[in-house]
Amino acid sequence: MFDIQEELKKLPGSPGVYIMHDEKDEIIYVGKAVSLKNRVRQYFQTSRNKGVKIEQMVTHITRFEYIVTDSELEALVLECNLIKEHRPKYNTMLMDDKTYPFIKVTVDEPYPRVMLARRMQKDRAKYFGPYTSAGAVKDTIELIRKIYNIRSCSRKLPKDMGKERPCLNYHIHQCMAPCQGYISEEDYKKSIQKAVHFLNGDYDLILKELEERMQEASEALEFEKAIEYRELLNSVRKIAQKQKITDTAGDDRDILAAAVEEEDAVVQVFFIRGGRLIGRDHFYLKIAKGESEAEILSSFIKQFYAGTPYIPAELMLQNEIDDLEVIEEWLSKRRGHRVHLKVPKKGTKEKLVELAKKNAALVLSTDKERLKREEGRTIGAVKDLEKLIGISGVVRMEAYDISNTNGFASVGSMVVYERGKPKRNDYRKFKIKGVQGADDYASMEEVLTRRFEHGMREQEEGKELGGFTAFPDLILMDGGKGQVNVALKVLERLDIHIPVCGMVKDDNHRTRGLYYQNEEILIDKDAECFRLITRIQDEAHRFAITFHRQLRGKGQVHSILDDIPGVGAARRKDLMRHFENIEAIKSATVEQLKELPSMNEKSAQDVYNFFH
What residues does each domain of the chain span? Predict the structure, then answer.
């Protein structure tokens, strides 16, 4: 039995991370300390004023464990990782898992391109952003391509020059066809340089150019062209207006402020790049009662900037936060350059922080009811599912489905839901390689084996959590007993312990309940839990079918019938319509094959001979 007072005596005075467990042995809090001995003891000292959250948490602690680190910085990194992995009840939790796009200019290429990028990589390209709206990024890229006639293709130039005809963009005057050598590398790069100035916020030159072109076209009575230039001019003005100058210093900084109401909080972030406000966003956090704005900001910074691909040179905050120096050190290490955390006391910067705080309060007051409904649909539905099947700690769920056409070209899908929301970056698709015909069980066995063996390899290599590396807390199979048993067989063979639940359908192909531990559990069709299960099942099915269609559309599906001499598209279609699967075609006699409208004596014999 764990004796808290005895274990407190054994704590070292070193930096590290401590992990609190409750009576069910679930992790309820993760923290870091400069001295584990001093920090952990404080929780159990009756004389200290601990605050509402800590008082409440301490009553649930049945044991604690700790990990010693070499430095406070190491402890902070480990704390961030453990909070992200376990999402403890008493830690302030960031509810949103947002990613922001960049605009990438491939300046290292002879004929550069302008494109959307989901993350900033260590290559020689130029990156602008991150931006808060993928739609705005796409509009900006489209506008740049139109104004500067930048290519949108992925041809490798000059290697592929002249290999194919110029595309439609050349004919509608939106590309100068570098793929044909119609523009020199030097002239093309001048256009790219102008595009880079545009992305840096230098709009005056292009506004002047477009006005002149519009005027010239109008005077030459080329009214269609003049309208085109006018629309481009309006688009540039719209972008220029959104990116008003907010800071004459021209630096990159994020401005953060929080608003709190009971167990809900919102952090508002203004993103300033090159002295211009390029976007803003708000983030919802689940907190414990009594948490201060400073504590909330500290937790937010650690969680948000552990995942964001870009860290600015400065964060401006509404309050001084604890661990300021170690957080600065951690952010500087991640950025590769010095990062400062400041609380402005006067001037424009203080007004910007105040504006961020007002925005956060406004979002919290207007969105509170919507937040509660959203939580019911997502986290609340997951909690109901846990109660229904008698498990706990479900954060990540994975669902699988198989799609094929009469047993031909089977594919598998894996969709991922975290905290009741789809995590599309972690979706995966599989071409079935080792199964012939419509054998869904064998196909599912192949998919699950490949998925978990791949994940085990990535874990051994120490890859970051995500995709195959992160294992689910619950597996959902599109089917009942048979599909569940396939999954359990794979997991047992690989010595992996994850609960598996089947999503059972009725005769009309609608979800009617769950199959778990050899028992079918009915679900109330009006419950959020039922709606969540249905959404997951539909998403797994949709993802599999979409992949299957993509393959067929690209002509990438190759079946064994393609290898039979004398069997073309028409005869292949006939065979697939008439026979249930490949096995049925193999078993057919020449007489049975001849019954097909497209078959004659010779082709029927060819098919029979191929299989015999």
Answer: 4-91, 102-201, 253-366, 396-553, 560-611
Instruction: In whole angstroms, give the CA distance from residue 446 to residue 444.
Output: 5
CATH of 560-611, one of 1.10.150.20, 3.90.1150.10, 3.40.50.720, 3.30.930.10: 1.10.150.20
Of 363, 260, 359, 247, nearest in space to 312 by CA:
247
Is residue 498 classed exposed, middle or buried when 0-12, 13-18 and 19+ CB atoms within 10 A define those classes? middle
- Helix ranges (DSSP H) in 151-264: 168-171, 185-199, 204-219, 223-242
pLDDT at residue 304 tops 50: yes
Cβ pair 4, 44 in contact under 8 A: yes
Would you identify the CATH topology of the domain 4-91?
Answer: GIY-YIG endonuclease (3.40.1440)
The pTM (predicted TM-score) of the whole model is: 0.51
> pLDDT of 423-474, one tens digit each?
888 899 888 877 766 678 888 999 999 999 999 988 887 665 567 888 999 9
pLDDT over 80 (residue 560):
no
Domain 396-553, CATH homologous superfamily name and number: UvrC, RNAse H endonuclease domain (3.30.420.340)
Higher pLDDT residue, 392 or 341? 341
Contact 110, 72 (CB under 8 A): no
Strands 253-261 and 314-317, by their bridges, are: parallel
The answer to whether the beta carbons of residues 106 and 116 sit under 8 Å apart is no
Domain 253-366 has CATH 3.30.420: yes
Inter-residue contact 447 to 432 (CB < 8 Å): yes
**The two domains 253-366 and 396-553 share their CATH topology (first three levels equal):** yes
Residue 462 backbone class (left: φ over 0; alpha: ψ -120 to 50; beta: rest) = left
| Torsion over CA: 301, 304, 305, 311 (sign) | negative
Taking the CA atoms of residue 371, residue 374, residue 379 and residue 380 in that order, the dihedral angle to the nearest 10 degrees is: 100
Summarised one tens digit per residue, pLDDT across range 583-610 is 778 888 888 888 888 888 888 888 888 8
Q: Is the pLDDT of residue 481 over 80?
A: yes
